[in-house]
Amino acid sequence: xxxxxxxxxxxxxxxxxxxxxxxxxxxxxxxxxxxxxxxxxxxxxxxxxxxxxxxxxxxxxxxxxxxxxxxxxxxxxxxxxxxxxxxxxxxxxxxxxxxxxxxxxxxxxxxxxxxxxxxxxxxxxxxxxxxxxxxxxxxxxxxxxxxxxxxxxxxxxxxxxxxxxxxxxxxxxxxxxxxxxxxxxxxxxxxxxxxxxxxxxxxxxxxxxxxxxxxxxxxxxxxxxxxxxxxxxxxxxxxxxxxxxxxxxxxxxx
Amino acid sequence: xxxxxxxxxxxxxxxxxxxxxxxxxxxxxxxxxxxxxxxxxxxxxxxxxxxxxxxxxxxxxxxxxxxxxxxxxxxxxxxxxxxxxxxxxxxxxxxxxxxxxxxxxxxxxxxxxxxxxxxxxxxxxxxxxxxxxxxxxxxxxxxxxxxxxxxxxxxxxxxxxxxxxxxxxxxxxxxxxxxxxxxxxxxxxxxxxxxxxxxxxxxxxxxxxxxxxxxxxxxxxxxxxxxxxxxxxxxxxxxxxxxxxxxxxxxxxx
Amino acid sequence: xxxxxxxxxxxxxxxxxxxxxxxxxxxxxxxxxxxxxxxxxxxxxxxxxxxxxxxxxxxxxxxxxxxxxxxxxxxxxxxxxxxxxxxxxxxxxxxxxxxxxxxxxxxxxxxxxxxxxxxxxxxxxxxxxxxxxxxxxxxxxxxxxxxxxxxxxxxxxxxxxxxxxxxxxxxxxxxxxxxxxxxxxxxxxxxxxxxxxxxxxxxxxxxxxxxxxxxxxxxxxxxxxxxxxxxxxxxxxxxxxxxxxxxxxxxxxx
Amino acid sequence: xxxxxxxxxxxxxxxxxxxxxxxxxxxxxxxxxxxxxxxxxxxxxxxxxxxxxxxxxxxxxxxxxxxxxxxxxxxxxxxxxxxxxxxxxxxxxxxxxxxxxxxxxxxxxxxxxxxxxxxxxxxxxxxxxxxxxxxxxxxxxxxxxxxxxxxxxxxxxxxxxxxxxxxxxxxxxxxxxxxxxxxxxxxxxxxxxxxxxxxxxxxxxxxxxxxxxxxxxxxxxxxxxxxxxxxxxxxxxxxxxxxxxxxxxxxxxx
Amino acid sequence: xxxxxxxxxxxxxxxxxxxxxxxxxxxxxxxxxxxxxxxxxxxxxxxxxxxxxxxxxxxxxxxxxxxxxxxxxxxxxxxxxxxxxxxxxxxxxxxxxxxxxxxxxxxxxxxxxxxxxxxxxxxxxxxxxxxxxxxxxxxxxxxxxxxxxxxxxxxxxxxxxxxxxxxxxxxxxxxxxxxxxxxxxxxxxxxxxxxxxxxxxxxxxxxxxxxxxxxxxxxxxxxxxxxxxxxxxxxxxxxxxxxxxxxxxxxxxx
Amino acid sequence: xxxxxxxxxxxxxxxxxxxxxxxxxxxxxxxxxxxxxxxxxxxxxxxxxxxxxxxxxxxxxxxxxxxxxxxxxxxxxxxxxxxxxxxxxxxxxxxxxxxxxxxxxxxxxxxxxxxxxxxxxxxxxxxxxxxxxxxxxxxxxxxxxxxxxxxxxxxxxxxxxxxxxxxxxxxxxxxxxxxxxxxxxxxxxxxxxxxxxxxxxxxxxxxxxxxxxxxxxxxxxxxxxxxxxxxxxxxxxxxxxxxxxxxxxxxxxx
Amino acid sequence: xxxxxxxxxxxxxxxxxxxxxxxxxxxxxxxxxxxxxxxxxxxxxxxxxxxxxxxxxxxxxxxxxxxxxxxxxxxxxxxxxxxxxxxxxxxxxxxxxxxxxxxxxxxxxxxxxxxxxxxxxxxxxxxxxxxxxxxxxxxxxxxxxxxxxxxxxxxxxxxxxxxxxxxxxxxxxxxxxxxxxxxxxxxxxxxxxxxxxxxxxxxxxxxxxxxxxxxxxxxxxxxxxxxxxxxxxxxxxxxxxxxxxxxxxxxxxx
Amino acid sequence: xxxxxxxxxxxxxxxxxxxxxxxxxxxxxxxxxxxxxxxxxxxxxxxxxxxxxxxxxxxxxxxxxxxxxxxxxxxxxxxxxxxxxxxxxxxxxxxxxxxxxxxxxxxxxxxxxxxxxxxxxxxxxxxxxxxxxxxxxxxxxxxxxxxxxxxxxxxxxxxxxxxxxxxxxxxxxxxxxxxxxxxxxxxxxxxxxxxxxxxxxxxxxxxxxxxxxxxxxxxxxxxxxxxxxxxxxxxxxxxxxxxxxxxxxxxxxx
Lengths: 254, 254, 254, 254, 254, 254, 254, 254
Hints:
Distance between the termini of chain A: 28 Å
Largest interface: E-F, 45 and 44 residues
Largest sheet of chain A: 5 strands, parallel
Low-confidence stretches of chain A: none
Strand order of the largest sheet of chain A: 8-7-9-10-11
Shape of chain A: globular
Radius of gyration of chain A: 20 Å
Strand content of chain A: 15-25%
Oligomer: homooctamer
């Protein structure tokens, strides 16, 4: 239950459409569900605006399914990242709303999708091989209630490919820029816009790219003001942060 | 001239309070001022919302002063970071509005300060030694038109110091969290809020802190969702990004 | 034969319940058993309080079984770590007391378990994926004569999960804290207790976690006083050290 | 006020030697003293058994003196590490009990020294150049109420130097082993004793010692069971942890 | 004596303007001059097209002067890099043609400058702080017989600064691109031209730039085809290689 | 269409052998072909002298084939690197000119091969295991219109193997030197020639070669003047740069 | 043909047991055999005392067999390292003297073994997992004409295992000491002997052993005088160097 | 007292030229002299063939002088490395035989020099800046009883400088090869000789030489068989090891 949903619940109670018992039960639920192998943070949506996201890697399909079930008791939506086909099989069997986001290696479950914010999050990637990470970012931002526009394969070796998307790039509220190898794209993009740029290094490359380290260092030392960086291949983190930033437009600056 | 200032200029023209010649001259100015040793990007405020910031390190006081003078031809405010006392001496002699932000190692020049946004940017730091970096972030955010609240010395070794500031922490629009050594503070803070958290590793520490690398890696691999990271000791970058994020509240989400 | 068992043997001799020949034979045994490919340190229990632990990785099942047999000639218990299912099959066939500790990837053989100390060793882990390392620590501490309490999935991104275990955490004599990614948990725990905290970095994570290096550096530079660190994924080492510390309670401070 | 001192205070109240007001005032004091640049954790002695230790590096003498004064309002003893001669001058002027531990680069202030535990902490160092780090460990352990024996210059290149101290080494409750270069000493020592060994890598060495990294890695991968490690040059951390371990002998194992 | 000069000598002999003795003496000179502390490679100009360049760092002014004198016995020009003001003082006293290239930290001695090739070598640098390295490259290329055009402060954060120099950039035979921080400029430049691009990382930057490593890795993993890289801050090497490349235009392709 | 081909087209138009419509259509084609997952840079041949090269790794055979088809609409030749046998199968089925360069792990498609330049590019490799990288360089240089001579297994441990190829080595216009392990060969070669030397480190070796890092560092710090370096195993990049350099002989130096 | 064998050939000629033609043919053979993919250094035995050793990794069985055949034309013995079972199969089929040294992962071919030197080379290893590397060293030293004694599993965690082999250790002419993890054994051994100690780090270990880096650094920074080091897992190199050292006893010091 | 000197003493006793008391006193002396801050290993000459060498760095002049005095009670010679001018002043005042080896940064004290072995140790260095390290190696080898020949500035960029010293290089018993930057010289030298080659990387270089790491890695991965390596800048270690190797010629191979 996000805080928006909590507010709605209270208003329904005031309007007499919900009983006091219902409301009490909701808020008295323990903030942790203890599964033995995991302490599910059932309080997270209220505190963070979105329920706990399940990181699939290193968890068995059964464990993932158990945690998912626990969260879906009270939540309308759920994101599970870094999944294998085995996870997908089990989840789709158990949850009818489970959708396999294949390129993004995620499963999304939306019993009731969030309304979308007006402002756009743009997800740019430098090369075709960066697509899975970019897609993880896009899927994350979308399930969290954002409109996303994808711009693919606009690396700096052919500047005109980037420049002919300038209108979109300058219109976006937040930009996620995904790149491997030397990771130069965020610097160039940040020079063109006044909105926050989140740089995502990918492990694409070989030799002295060192599994994404070259791109990571390039992004951290970017000469473009306002660039912030997430971990190598961390599309999820970028999408999550972008959504938090875009959500600031929900606040009306007095 | 920021885009807000450009809009104002055009409105004044429409209202007959500025001549066409004045307007034309402003927009016809070249987007670059060539000083030989530097190509000053006089177009940046229009494009990025804030004039080019001068990175003092590695430039002579005379070079810095020349660039500053060039920018101030058209701009109302200016930030110069990583300065030495020699820079300060020359700048204060030449520019009457020059203010030495000692702890932040910056000079600010504000002929006409920007109006401040309502929403708060909170700058937290883990230890007393992280203060200069935190202050660079705060000064940057302030000159860019934001209200800043500072919370000092709330490292995770004494959690109650952090928790007794919870109200402020949860009220801020954007949080900048500065920490050296193991850099654990952003993870803990990110678990408590739903707003963007910008983590700034500092070079504070010794031995296996490797000049801030331990903190940097800790922040990049943070288990706290929504954390983005800037370069070691890059208080300026954090303040700049935070301001860009906070500026999203200027947009009214339809 | 541990020194406690040696003391008991001598007392039995003094009491006339053992012959001189029996005692002599025990102490005259060579301190090394030479198997060609290995020099089994048969003197270790007397010197270190616990017989040589066999590191299974890189040894064939036959080699492991031979070393185990050699040690069990004189010892009542044995720990074999980092084993494969092939090791397990051979060991369970040969030794009837062999127990497969599956999650911990160990085999334990206890002909006569050690009496347990009163004081508790707490094993905390930050995430579900850290469980195997935590369990290796727990199994090690248990076979060495300690009571262990496990606390799972209490990472710092949801502080309330940790704080609601505070009573147990402050009651333990020694704490083993297992975490991957940024490894922040030991710093927070060390701030809450006055007992020794042993931090165990795990290789859980991706990208800039560099196979546990981020967690390792974070723990080494921890701002929490009294934290000591073992190698990445070294649950065994943590359990062993924790047992040595807890054994200090066997000594009566005058 | 340590918990022992708190217990004594309550007993004095019960015995009528202290007024209720006095007791209340003591416990009602805020757990934080806010100095602006620092949040002094005045609750730490009660929680951790020893008052907050001041890390001098990066703090001005005035800042250190202010924090020290704040702590000494309620505490009987204080440790300040990594100090310069300038710190010493200011502290000795302000606090009459301030003692300069020159080799250890510390200042200690003991209004009323703690009673010493019976069990010994042995501090070994491999070479003469490791002495300052070893001494920092020793001074820390001593002020926290432990007897310390120092063994200097017993590196493994001349094993007889170590072996002729075997009696002491095997008698100690806890061993701190300080070494630079290849850091081999803890492995050898751990093979000879059944008590906890805390390894401290130092930055002594050149070339491929990489400022202590060679020693640190050697200690983390030590084949000696039960070795735990602290940061490079972190004598303080080793002394603190050793004291926490030795304090376990205060508990009587039932 | 370069091979061009050798050819000229032989033609003068054939034309009767030089005696056989003169020619013989020139070619019979030993290919090494042994100064004890140095073996001057007097054969290098013939083999490599330019006399041995003296790396000043780590050599005393007297040593540099001795080597210089030895080379100038037979050569018309000489380059000495990485010099201090002390070197300059001694060299200018001893050699009347010695010119201090202050920004480039070099001394050049040209008794008879080489004729300049028609094709241009362009030296671009990303920021003002990269100037000394760029200038070392330019001075090297010039003394080796090339025309050089310098383009300063055209980093990717303000693309228009670069693009308005496009004509020059596309006209150059060889491009040297100097950049610190994330080192993105060579990738962008390589995308715009069909000529060889030599990337020079500089140690400009802080934190995760690691003294030029970020820029170096970025350049090595550049997505721009045809980029080759030299060592960090190695302006000399870039200028030397650029001259070798430009000299290929001396060959007429049949 | 390379610029040479564009020139020819215009001359044919002037000579009346091509219609205006044909010419217009050619130049009006969009500089990008958008395939969704890729933005094919159809303008590259005109700008860089050779059409976009497809990096096969990380792209599906279908994606590679689609991009290839797109490029071949207007281009006469194409290079696809880092391919698998699956790529080969699909490409050979679809394009009749597709040739599998097995050792080089490339596919080349030449509808009409470029005329070869007179000057030679020499490709040297230090050991037999470096052959695939050397061959990738050679194939790249050949398809771009160069004559290539290969010299294999001339590592510095048997200098006579290298020296007996001295004539060829000194005759080449450009030299590509491929080596793993300590990467010493480029330094030795650069000492023997006056032409550009491109060093290619390979990942051949074990232990402290760290996947080519030892060779890379050795080449970057080479004492041989004029050596430039490409990424580990980047034979393609070396061949491409060598061709760009050799193409300078197409220009007649006035 | 080693130089000893060359001397014998000449003596047989002088004694009339060999024809002049035979001798001439031997010395007139080219110093290189060109196989296209390899330049076999047929001169090496004369120059280095042992024929070229074939490094099997990265070469096909057919390539290895061809090179081997070429060498055996003139040589009596041959060593092939880092082989797979596929190499073994092909080699044993082709060469009847081919012996598979399984543990050492080598094939040796000795048509006529070298006479053995009197002095012993001792090969020590710290743990059972280090055996393959130790055995590679031993096999190499043996085929080069040395007596080898192996001492296994004498790591420093149980010093008595090492000390009870002291007589042998002090009797050896050269010592090869193989160890993974922290690599402390060479330091201890070097403190006990006056003969050369060659340290071989192995990739045995996990976590912070970083594939042998911890051991390598430990050995390079060893406090034991006279320790020299070879690459990680380079048993061959250690055996080769040890043989070169031991061969110095063939020289009679006047 | 070396073992040779011990043998002489015993022979003098047998011959009646020394009293039993004298002999007994010599052998009864403790193997350690405890100076508090140092345990002088007075037994080392007997065990290792040369008395303990004092590493000056990090020790005060007074400490060095005290240790030196202790050693000279029984020894005829002494080496003190890494000294400052302050050390020299104190040592020359106290010991009349103290000689300052300025370039080598050592002090030698030889009351009675050792007789020199016949076989030569060659010390080669690649560049003039490597001289101090080479000289430390040479001085060490000389005081230990060896003849040393120095060959300076023979780096691989001018092979003829090396090749014209071939006779000396092939005549030496042991070769020490000192090089910074890419450290290629040992590989080339090892290809030319059949004697042991000890490679010494130096910290000479800049950028990607990383303080000697590039040279170190190059030497460890050298393709030249028989190369062993010591720590960066460790001239002493190389000289010591070379002397141990050369001393093998003292043994007569039966």
